[in-house]
Design brief:
Length: about 725
């Protein structure tokens, strides 16, 4: 049993294999407080950490200092406006104009399993015996009930949290803020880690000291965004890959968010995560409920590396539903960087033919096959095949590609509408816009108002018809702009604050329908590169395009930040042509492949135009993919060295769960003159057995590799790379 309630001490004990979380109920009034989160501890009385014995006393004994109590008490979910001046988790607009929320304990349930969250992506129990604690809190004054849900995933050391708000009163209530989780604890000179970025520079790791006051990352762009990521960790100073206490908090949501840590006057911290409250309002009529999205919490006593492995296992075991999760994905060739909009059936078939001859397994036709789209200025919304380009039609093209032995995949951007489209001319009101204001264009396009059912139905019908019209094995679902002009003709003026969230719910509904109707379809999400790479989208697609930057060296830091929290099996990574289209850098063809092998692997180039020498290397690279992908997809990831930190080289490895093999990827970004070979210490191996380095047959003890290290080949030149594959030697030492 992972959850227990001790009636005497009024303490809830939540335990995973290696971590414990303790919640206590304080005072007659039933304040719900946070006692402890960290390394696993025994069951015991520990309510002293609620500090109710310290002055100012609890309100029932010393109501004179109620405000001081409220401002100090470590809460599980912070109310609003009644004395706790740290960040609140919930806010309302009541009929009487009041905005305060004061939540206290009403009752609780401990249930088996992991409840779904209606309309939202959320983790599931799978084969594990998960238990869930539902704490029922209430504010009688406002007439709302707030349920805090905690599900305990023992094996992965994860606790998920979510919140349900119910209007239990007789009058309407408007929610103006509903966060999903709050963690209060004493500061231990923690540092905060977040992932920032931009187009072509997604998920760059940043660390900072937690200072007094608030520090946050957020998105108001209607998607999780290139710029900030719905993730944060806080950790003891100098925590590294292997040591230190690390807390990770990750939001299962694809829209506006905030992730914030506040350090208080009394040196405690409050970490909160949820839908961003700016512009958010949600009407709850009596009896109605609002579900706030899920937060994934994990704690590691063994540094960032263990946090990474907890999250990788958690997403693989409890978030990704696709039947492709545990299978090799077809090695694909995508024509975006090969042709951009300039292609037709003949060109695609020429690429497919050569691809088939070199072992590639799927052709993906990217943007530009529909309406009259020859650039990015037109036709989004007109999902009709352009037969001037796709001569003979889509089915003919797909059949011909299939005849060559390749599967076929297609690109779509269903959420968008071009002003120059039949759809816009017919339904100008279908684009998000504010009355009396010209909406803001981005990449020449507007966003469809997915809060409206008839628009979602139209969009879905278009996607459905295209996929059903030919043997389509894969869809790349793109989204190339962020939301602006938040206006919908569907809702009354005073409900426009619901639109951002309703939009995200609309996207989820569409993808739910798609994955239900086409369970064999391989779906890859994408957003101008990796602007909607988040756990919410992973619920629908087992892989997400990581970045439009396909340069092998830029990818080192982009993939490092992505791998910090996402399994390698989810990371869309391709070999592209050089000079690289984004940064103009030329790197060896093999290095590009070695870096892309840490993801789903594919090509993004015109195979008919690259040099004979490079083309001839493709079959060898495809063999590497088939040889290593089971290990890369399912194994444990260890970050050994970071080019982002050292400016010279990158090194990471994947170790099989049973420790029988390991693949080390080493990228020597800069060649160095007149130096000894570089030595790195490996991780995650068994210490007391021997491993054989496959290509040289040399034998190394696991203990030696991890403690003394191994020498990396000193290669001549910049941007060089090498893979080292270790297999268990049969002889035990
Ligand atoms: C952005 C994607 O990230 C690219 O791979 C490509 O599909 C373009 N959109 C097409 O418009």
């Amino acid at each position: 049993m992972s959850i227990k309630y001790n009636e005497d001490s009024r303490i809830f004990e939540l335990d995973t294999d290696n971590t414990s979380y303790r919640i206590g109920i304080a005072d007659k009034e039933g304040f719900v407080g946070h006692i402890y989160y960290g390394q696993r501890i025994r069951s015991q009385k520990c309510d002293q950490f609620l500090r109710t014995w310290e002055g100012p006393f609890v309100p029932s004994e010393n109501n004179r200092e109620r405000c001081s109590f409220m401002d100090t008490f470590p809460v599980e979910y912070a109310g609003n406006g009644v004395g706790d001046y740290r960040e609140s988790c919930i806010a309302v607009k009541n009929v009487n104009g009041s905005r305060t929320v004061d939540l206290t304990y009403k009752s609780h349930d401990i249930i088996s399993g992991k409840p779904e969250i209606k309309g939202l992506p959320a983790s599931f129990a799978g084969d594990e015996p998960v238990q869930t604690l539902v704490l029922h809190l209430t504010d009688k004054g406002v007439g709302i009930d707030v349920d805090l849900l905690y599900s305990v995933f023992e094996k992965e050391d994860v606790i998920t949290r979510s919140v349900k708000v119910t209007n239990a009163g007789k009058t309407d209530v408007k929610l103006t803020k509903v966060y999903s989780a709050c963690v209060d604890m004493d500061d231990e000179e923690f540092e905060m880690l977040t992932l920032h970025g931009s187009w072509a520079r997604e998920r760059q790791i940043e660390r900072r000291k937690i200072a007094y006051g608030k520090q946050s990352v957020s998105s108001l762009r209607g998607e999780s965004s290139h710029q900030d990521h719905p993730f944060m960790a806080w950790m003891t100073k100098n925590a590294d890959q292997n040591t230190g206490d690390v807390y990770g908090m990750h939001f299962v949501y694809s829209g506006n968010f905030i992730a914030q840590i506040e350090k208080s006057q009394f040196d405690s911290i409050r970490a909160v995560m949820g839908i961003h409250s700016e512009g958010f309002e949600w009407l709850l009529t009596p009896g109605e409920e609002f579900d706030a999205p899920e937060v994934v919490l994990t704690y590691s006593h063994e540094g960032l590396g263990q946090m990474t492995r907890n999250l990788h296992d958690f997403y693989r075991n409890h978030m990704i539903r696709s039947r492709y999760l545990h299978t090799k994905r077809p090695v694909l060739i995508n024509n975006w960087e090969a042709t951009y909009f300039d292609f037709d059936t003949d060109k695609l078939l020429a690429i497919a033919k050569s691809a088939a001859e070199h072992g590639i397994e799927m052709l993906v036709m990217d943007d530009g096959w529909f309406g009259h789209r020859n650039d990015d200025a037109t036709s989004l919304g007109d999902w009709f095949v352009n037969e001037n380009k796709i001569k003979g039609g889509l089915k003919y093209l797909v059949d011909e590609v299939n005849k060559l032995g390749l599967k076929f995949g297609i690109w779509m951007e269903p959420e968008m509408i071009s002003p120059d489209s039949e759809l816009y001319r017919k339904h100008p009101d279908w684009a998000l816009a504010v009355p009396e204001r010209t909406a803001t264009l981005s990449r020449n396009q507007y966003v469809l108002d997915l809060s409206r059912k008839e628009i979602r139905d139209y969009v879905y019908e278009c996607v459905y018809n295209i996929i059903s019209s030919a043997n389509i094995a894969y869809v790349k679902w793109d989204m190339n702009r962020q939301l602006t002009d938040i206006g919908s003709t569907c809702f009354a003026g005073d409900r426009q604050g619901e639109l951002m969230h309703r939009y995200v719910l609309g996207v989820y509904e569409l993808q739910e329908r798609l994955t239900k109707d086409f369970p064999d379809l391989l779906l890859e999400n994408c957003s101008g590169g990796g602007a909607r790479f988040d756990p919410g989208m992973l619920y629908y697609s087992p892989q997400i395009w990581c970045s439009d930057d396909t340069d092998a060296i830029e990818r080192l830091s982009i993939q490092e930040g992505t791998e910090l929290i996402y399994p390698l099996s989810t990371i869309g990574a391709h070999v592209s042509d050089c000079p690289n289209h984004t940064v103009g850098r030329t790197t060896p063809f093999m290095t590009r492949a070695h870096v892309a092998l840490a993801g789903t692997f594919g090509y993004e180039l015109d195979i008919t135009k690259i040099s004979d020498e490079e083309r001839a290397m493709i079959p060898e690279q495809v063999v590497l993919y088939h040889k290593y992908n089971d290990l890369v997809r399912e194994g444990d990831y260890y970050r050994i060295a970071s080019y982002r930190e050292n400016g010279e080289y990158d090194c990471y490895m994947v170790v099989a769960k049973d420790k029988s093999e390991a693949l080390v990827t080493y990228v020597q970004v800069k060649g160095r003159p007149n130096v000894h070979s570089r030595k790195v210490k490996l991780s995650g191996l068994l210490a007391d057995v021997d491993y054989r380095l496959e290509d040289t047959n040399e034998i190394y003890g696991g203990d030696l590799l991890m403690n003394a290290g191994m020498f990396m080949e000193n290669m001549r030149g910049d941007y060089m790379s090498r893979l080292y594959h270790f297999v268990l030697d049969n002889t035990l030492t």
